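This week, think about what follows.
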Amino acid sequence: MITNTSLEYKGDLYPSKIVSYEHEGDSISFNTDNKVILKVTILRDSLIRFRFTTKGYFSNDFSYAIDKTQLHGYNFLELTEEETYFEIRTSKVKCKIQKADLRLAVYDLNDFLILEDELGFHWEESYEYGGNIVKMSKFSKDGECYYGLGDKATQMNLKGKRVENFATDQYAYQKDQEPLYKVVPFYIGLHNKQSYGIFFDNTFRTFFDFCQERRNITSFWAEGGEMNYYFIYGPQMQDVVTTYTDLTGKPELPPLWVLGYHQCKWSYYPESKVKEITSKFRELKIPCDAIYLDIDYMDGFRCFTWNKNYFPDPKKMVAELAEDGFKTVVIIDPGIKIDKDYWVYQEALEKDYFCKRADGPYMKGKVWPGECNFPDYTNPAVREWWAGLFKELIADIGVKGVWNDMNEPAVMEVPNKTFPMDVRHLYDGNPCSHRKAHNIYGTQMARATYHGVKRFVYPKRPFVITRSAYSGAQRYTSSWTGDNVATWEHLWIANIQVQRMSISGMGFTGSDIGGFAEQPSGELYARWIQLGVFHPFCRTHSSGDHGNQEPWSFDEEVINITRKFVSLRYQLLPYLYTMFWQYIEEGVPMLKPLVYYDQDDTQTHYRNDEFVFGNQILVCPILEPNAVGRRMYIPRGEWYNYWTNELFVGGREIWIDTKFDEIPVFIKAGAIIPKYPVQQYVGELEFDELTLDVYYKNGKEKSVVYEDAQDGYDYKKGRYSFLSLRTIGKDKELIIQLHKEGKYDTPYSKYKINLIGLPFKVTEIEIDNEKVDFDKISFESNNFLIVDKEFNELHIVGE
C-alpha cells in the first residue's frame, strides 16, 4: 500500500554553498554541499569553459562540436580566495565565483563588468524523462545587443527575441518562425563597446531568451544534458567570432569551381532535360559550374541507385557534362527504403546499422521512398560503411559533389516531423535517446558523406552540402537555408540568415536563389541573383511544382541582369577564394554584418541589410519591388560607388539611386580588388593577365590575394601564392607595394592595373625605382597600365 505519494519539490533547484575546491592544471572544480560541482577550465586567456553537474560527478566528457585538433593554452592563471568569493584571473579577464551559491561574474582587467549571473545556474528535475532541465540566467546591461545563433529568420539583433533550437524540416517557413533546420547555440553579446560570446554546447532541445520574458534578463536552457557553456572574451566581435570558429573548427579549402554558380531544381530529368538546361547556359553565355540531380535520378528514390529509364548511362552523361564544364552534384537522403532486394538495405540490415526504438525494433518512418529505416550515423562503424557507399557514384561514375537533404532527420506523416524521442543512438560510445542525438544527426550524416566523397574524389577536393547542421558541421560541409519561399520577405530573410551564419562559424552558406516554394516574378528573381552572387554558396534551386526558375524563364532583361551579375561573380573569384582562405586560416567570416565591421559605431547595431563581402566590398541589396534607389548606411571611412566610381565619406545614411540592373555596391578606398576574365566555368580559359582594380586613398590600405592550383592538395605543401599588396596614397603620388609568399607560380605573367579615383594626372611611373616609358607598360589615358608581375614597388607620380 502506498502511503506517501508526494514527490520532492518539482520547481527550480539551486546550488548551495561551496564546501571545497580542487585546482588541477588548467581546471578548478568547486564542490557544494548539495553535490553540485562547477568545473572551470581555462582553455585560453580569453576562452573559459563552465561545466556544471548536480549529481556529485561528471558523465563522460564528449562533444561533436569541438574541434579536437585545435591546441589550446593560456599565458597566465591565478586563483585567489576572498571572504565571499573565489577569483580566477587570466591575462585577459577575471572571474569571481560566489561562495554562497556559485553565481559568477566576469570582468576585464580594469574591473569593467562584462557578464554577470542573475539567478545563475539552476535546474528542474525532469520526472518524465529522467535527468534535469538545466537553466542559466544572466543580467542584460543597458543597451546590450545580441547576435548569432545561426540561420534564424529574424532581425540581426536578437534583443527582445526568444528562439528555439531543434532541427526541424520547416517547409515554406516564415519570418520569425521557430525552430528551423540548423542548431548553432552560440551568441555574441555587445555592450559599452565590449563584445563577448557564449557557446552553450548542449545537443538537447535548447532555448534562448534575450530579454523577452523579463526585461534586462537573458537566459538559456536545455531539456536535458549538462549546463556546459564556453565564455569567449573579445573585446572586439572579430575576436569572439574567430575564437568560436577555432573552437568548433574550420573547413578545408574547396575547389575553386565550388565557388562558381550552381543550378538546381526538383527535378531535372531525364538526361535530355539535363543537357537541355546545361546547353542553354552555354548558349546564353551565363557562367555555370554545377548541375544538380534531385531525388528523381534514383530508382524509386533508393539512395545510391539510378533510374535507368531517365539516365540509361549515367557515367557517359556525367563525362559529357564534364566536357562542357559542368560538374554533377547528386542528392542523398538518410532514409533507406525497406526492400529486401535493395543492396544498401540488405547490407545495413546484416550489419545491424539502423536506428532502433527503445524496446528493440528498427525505427520505421515514411519519406520519399515510402517506408524506410535510418542509419545511426552516431555509430563510427556506420559512418565508415556509409562513406564506402560513395565509391560507385564518385570514383566510377564521376559525380563531383553530394547534397544531403531531409537529415534533420525529417519524417513524413507524423506530428513532430521526426523520429520518436525514444529512438536509441550509439553516440560514439555514449548511448542515448533521440532527445540528445536529434540535433546532431544531420551533422553526423554530413560527416560520413564528407569522408566518403573525400576518399573517392581524391586527389581532388570534396564538396558536400547539408540542410541540417549543429555547431562544428562546418568542418565537413557547406549548407543552405532550406525550403524558403519566392517572396520579397524571404529575400530579406535570406540576406540576414547568410550574414548570421557567417558570424556563427558556418560561413559557407547560401539560400535557394529565387525561392524554393512558389514562383518569383522576374523582378524578384533578378534582385535575388544580385544578392546571391555575393553569398559564399551561390545556387538557384526551386520546386518543380511551381514552374520554371532558370534565368531564361523570365524576360530578356532578367537574362541580361543574371548574366551581368553571375559574370561579376566569376570576375571576383580570386577575391572570393581569398576570402575563403582567410576564413579557414584565421577564422574570419566571409560576410561581415556592419556591427561586426564596426561595433564602436552604434548606428551599426540595428542594421540588417548592408554587409561587407570579404574585407573591402560593401553590398546592400534591393529588397522591395519597383525600387529606383534606397537609403543605406555607409560605414565609417571612404567608399567608392562600384558603378560610378564616385567617392563617399561614410558614417552616415544616404540615398543611393539604382537601376534595375544594379544594386548598391561600394569598394573601400585604398583597396586592390583582383579580377579574372569572365569564364563560362572555372578552368575554361588560359589567361596571361590578372586585373587589379586599385582604388586611390590618401593614406594607407592593405589588400591580399591568395591563389593556388584551384584544386588538389599541393597548397598544403607550400605551393600557393599569397600576395600582400599595400597602397600608400599622397596628394600627387600613389605607391603600390607587393610582397609574394609561397611556391606556386601563377599561370599569368602580367598585372593589368586599373587606377581608380586618382586626384592627379599621371606624369611619371617608376617600377622598382626605375622610370619607365608609358609605351612599355601600355599606359593609357584611362589609367590602365600593364606591368610584369615580378615587381616589388610601383610609384605613380602626377601633377
